């Protein structure tokens, strides 16, 4: 080989090495060599409308090279998409059942068809990632008062592209899937309840005039054992005792017709998981919960997995307050990591407590109560018209829109335009002694109440929209302390005066969410009553094809 030939080969090799150094991730030279395919892809990308998905960014990371050139890659994608069923999503929304056949058809149809398929497959992947991270359904489509912006994409697109090259698509989905323990527990529950739904029918407990109680001996106890076993309570069902009696042997586990202590404990566990009084007695509400079809619980879990995706990531180390509306609970994660919990009373089905994301800004001490227009119109005015002493009996003042006090005798209560009612501060005031306030468009706040007995009820959707908190004074003192305030709540309450606002030096995030299935502190998923009847519309939206 002469010197000129050697120089030419060196130049070719150097140019090839420079070109290959710009190929990202694990792309092979064969992938990068097809200029007609690359140009077809570029043309297709220019013609496609991909405003809602980062498709162009995905291919820019790949230097405009196709991602799905081998059947094995497409098959890996289809398999990973099928696994999204465990998240309550529908794989066919992402063409999981059609990708491989579409790929095979595209291979004999020219560069344009191959580029079109590649974009389609990438679109399926990115759409699934978007749904997994932020939810398939836009919350505003099913929650009219939703006021929280949808979060931006958080997963790394570069890592997704690398996972595609590695044919590790499940790894790509882990980048987008919510990482909270509650989300994982909901997924595990969905898998269990789907298995229950495939096991066939289990006899229902019949309705009866009396309740089944511990100590009873009844044929229905056998059915109770079977229903509880279906819901995951082990050791409650054994062989028919009559078969053992025929051979003179005691049946294992005693008489299955007797409502024994073991069964009572199982009933109580079931009741706690279904927001029922855990008294071990099987009355109408417990019987209805026991007789629920497993498929209905599957739907309920799918709906709440979607809501969990809406919530987005929560930093466990950051202080925050969240109200579990359907669970009738408030949870406060303090700066030291401790969690404080309280029972709450929330809005009735006629006056729903809305979903809110905000931050607690201040407390109102010894609040007066200006009656909201809806309550004034629907509740208070009819009572005043029936009894003119109602205002005096309830320490209510009549004021005009400027706040000046009026003489009630001079108001036409049939047409009381331009007036408001204000109940003065005191022990009988519906707001109690302290209100926890945060900016929102619905005039919702957390507050004290003189009606402490309401917290003992199982079903606590009883208010006019605001949230009554059991132990709110302890809660308010913690908010003051944790935000760096020097005030003591007891001193503020006892100092007299009305409507004193005390700002928190540091605002604390607060969120109100509606969840009809959610894990408790032990990781067991609890099923709640759909008090606002929101599940059906969300399930219908989830089931619509995209």
Helix coverage percent: 40-55%
How many H/I helical runs? 21
Q: Enumerate the spans where pLDDT stays under 50 for 5 or more consecutive residues.
A: 10-31, 239-252
Radius of gyration: 31 Å
The percent range for strand residues is 5-15%
What is the structural class?
A: alpha+beta
Oligomer description:
single chain
What does this structure look like?
This protein is an alpha+beta fold. About 40% of the residues lie in helices and about 15% in strands. Helix 5 (about 70-80) packs antiparallel against helix 6 (about 100-105), helix 9 (about 155-165) packs antiparallel against helix 10 (about 170-175) and helix 11 packs antiparallel against helix 16 (about 295-310).
Key features of this structure:
eight-stranded mixed β-barrel, four-stranded antiparallel beta sheet, globular, 546 residues, alpha+beta
Secondary structure blueprint with pairings:
Elements (H helix, E strand, L loop, with lengths): L2 H18 L8 H4 L2 H13 L7 H7 L9 H12 L16 H8 L3 H25 L4 H4 L14 H9 L3 H8 L4 H17 L21 H12 L10 H5 L15 H13 L10 H7 L3 H18 L8 E5 L4 E5 L5 E9 L8 E10 L3 E2 L2 H14 L3 H4 L2 E5 L4 E2 L12 E5 L10 E4 L8 E2 L13 E3 L3 E3 L2 H11 L6 H6 L5 E14 L3 E3 L5 E3 L7 H9 L3
Parallel strand pairs: 1-13, 3-11, 10-12
Antiparallel strand pairs: 1-2, 2-3, 3-12, 4-9, 4-13, 5-8, 6-7, 6-8, 9-10, 14-15
Helix pairs in contact: 3-7, 5-6, 6-7, 7-10, 7-16, 9-10, 11-16, 16-21
